[in-house]
Specification:
It catalyses: S-sulfanyl-L-cysteinyl-[protein] + uridine(34) in tRNA + AH2 + ATP = 2-thiouridine(34) in tRNA + L-cysteinyl-[protein] + A + AMP + diphosphate + H(+). One of its GO terms (biological process) is tRNA wobble position uridine thiolation. ATP binds at residues 38-45, 64, 156. Residues 178-180 are annotated as: Interaction with tRNA. The chain is an alpha/beta fold. It folds into 3 domains: 11-213, Rossmann fold (3-Layer(aba) Sandwich), CATH 3.40.50.620; 248-304, Roll (SH3 type barrels); 307-384, Translation factors (Elongation Factor Tu (Ef-tu), domain 3, Beta Barrel). Helix content is 26%, strand content 27%. It has helices at 11-19, 43-54, 82-95, 105-121, 128-147, 189-194, 204-213, 235-242, 381-384; strands at 34-38, 58-65, 98-103, 152-154, 159-164, 167-172, 195-196, 250-254, 259-263, 287-292, 297-301, 308-318, 326-329, 337-342, 345-352, 360-365, 368-380. The strands form 3 sheets. Strands 12-15-14-13-16-17 form a 6-stranded antiparallel barrel. Strands 3-2-1-4-7 form a 5-stranded parallel sheet, sandwiched between helices. Helix 2 crosses helix 7 (204-213), helix 4 (105-121) packs antiparallel against helix 5 (128-147) and helix 4 packs across helix 8 (235-242). Bound molecules: adenosine-5'-triphosphate. Adenosine-5'-triphosphate binds at residues 38-40, 42-45, 63-64, 66, 79-80, 137, 155-157, 223-224. Residues 38-40, 42-45, 63-64, 66, 79-80, 137, 155-157, 223-224 line the site of adenosine-5'-triphosphate.
């Protein structure tokens, strides 16, 4: 049972956290075991490394160089360019553990950045953080950790791994504001067996308190934000840069096909969006209902047209029983809503709004992640009625 920390900045807090290293579930304690810690140079993974070391295990820090912004200042997007790598190295030096840096820029580029651009061009709204977790972080890092003879791979993700009767389960973090379970739905059972997430049971201020207690230079380092390879938030600008010939304008049409205006490229739009349509003189507010990439059309309609009764999912990852009632989260910031899964069709108990192809539908039983899939297409509640 995890104990609450009542002294956020005290020695007691740190001792509790190390004792909590039951997350590593290494039979007979961690001595004699080898833990590889995925280190991004931020405070979270640095504290994971400190906890791993304190558990008595041989600890090795591994950093993937994924993307270089061509500058030296860390954050806001940060994805292990110069300064972050140096920060990770400094933490490892302080802890007296080995640190290896691997250049995975080209795999990150193909698996995450190029795919991000192509998804936008196909009229979908991508979630690159899931692709990154599935590719560079969990596939590439896995292989590296195994090559290094590790017993487990530990990361600073805010999720919990609990062991039930059927084996390792993925659960939400205790801190709802930090929970990253939506972005980890595609973690396989095999990966889950090997992964450890020691921060999922802690609030962030406790993590920072441990970092300060340990004298880690990153204790006050700001959190990374948004999508690491788009630090200025200009997604459309990045897609234009990557695919200069593919971003063409087209028509904005209503549900009946009537042309209402023009747009500079479908990459600027996402289902449910209202801003930026620039089609005045309409009797009621209009929203993006659908993107039609072949015709380069943006289809708009009233809010009622956004109501979705069901979604077809692809690449379903199963981590628990999916046959009963469950709750489904269809955007990272959405609240989970009651639904049921029939084959690959997710049927909502009540119409759901803003369901966008390209996003993930993550399925929960309370705090437990039962699995999830990619939203391929949606069924309008109006048509289903
Ligand atoms: N480039 C990287 N190399 C190795 N591991 C990484 C890298 N980027 C992220 N990770 C691992 O994935 C975890 C989650 O990454 P995420 O980007 O969501 O968080 P973060 O804010 O970067 O965390 P941190 O405070 O550790 O920097 C990190 O805590 C770390 O364990």
């Amino acid at each position: 049972m995890r104990r609450a920390c009542v002294h956020p900045a005290s020695e007691t807090c740190y001792r509790d956290a190390v004792t909590d290293f039951a997350d590593f579930q290494l039979a007979g304690g961690a001595a004699g075991r080898r833990i590889v810690v995925a280190m991004s140079g931020g405070v979270d993974s640095s504290v994971v490394a400190a906890l791993a070391k304190a558990s008595g295990a041989e600890t090795i820090g591994v950093t993937l160089q994924l993307y270089d912004h061509g500058e030296a200042t860390a954050r806001p997007g940060a994805c292990c360019a110069g300064r972050d790598i140096r920060d990770a190295r400094a933490v490892c030096d302080k802890l007296g553990i080995a640190h290896y840096v691997f250049d995975h820029e080209s795999s990150f580029r193909t698996q995450v950045v190029d795919r991000f651009a192509d998804e936008y061009l196909a009229g979908r709204t991508p979630i690159p953080c899931v692709q990154c977790n599935m590719g560079p972080k969990f596939t590439d890092l896995f292989a590296l950790a195994r090559d290094l003879g590790a017993d487990c791979l530990a990361t600073g993700h805010y999720v919990r791994r609990l062991v039930g009767d059927g084996g390792a389960e993925l659960h939400r973090a205790i801190d709802p504001a930090r929970d990253q379970s939506y972005f980890l739905f595609a973690t396989t059972r095999e990966q889950l067996d090997f992964l450890r997430f020691p921060l999922g049971g802690m609030p962030k201020d406790r993590v920072r308190a441990i970092a300060a207690e340990m004298g880690l230079g990153v204790a006050g380092k700001p959190d990374s934000q948004d999508i690491c390879f788009v630090p200025d938030g200009d997604y459309a600008g990045l897609v234009r840069k990557l695919r200069p010939t593919a971003v063409d304008g087209g028509e904005i049409v209503d549900l009946g096909g009537r042309v209402l205006g023009e747009h500079p490229g479908i990459i600027h739009y996402t289902v449910g969006q209202r801003r930026g349509l620039d089609i005045g003189g309409q009797p009621e507010p209009l929203y993006v209902v659908r993107l039609e990439p072949e015709q380069r059309r943006v289809v708009v309609g009233p809010r009622a047209a956004l109501a979705v009764s069901a979604a077809r999912l692809t690449d379903l990852n199963v981590l628990g029983p999916l046959t009963g009632p469950l709750s489904a989260k269809v955007r990272s910031m959405a609240r989970p809503v009651p639904a049921r899964l029939h084959g690959d069709e997710l049927v909502f108990d009540s119409p759901e709004y803003g369901v966008s192809p390209g996003q993930a539908a993550v399925l929960y039983d309370g705090d437990r992640v039962l699995g999830g899939g990619w939203i391929a297409e949606t069924q309008s509640a109006a048509l289903a009625a």
